[in-house]
Amino acid sequence: MLFLAANLSFVLRYYVDWRGLFAPGPSPWAELYRAIPLMIAVWSGVFVSVGLYSDTLNKKREFFLLLKASVMAFCLIFAAAFFYRGFSYSRVAAAFMVLLVFILDFGFRLAFRAASMLARHDSGQGVTGTEPQEAESRKVEQRKVEPRKVEQRKVEQRKV
Question: Do residues 77 and 107 lie in contact, with contact meaning Cβ atoms separated by under 8 Å?
Answer without folding.
Answer: no
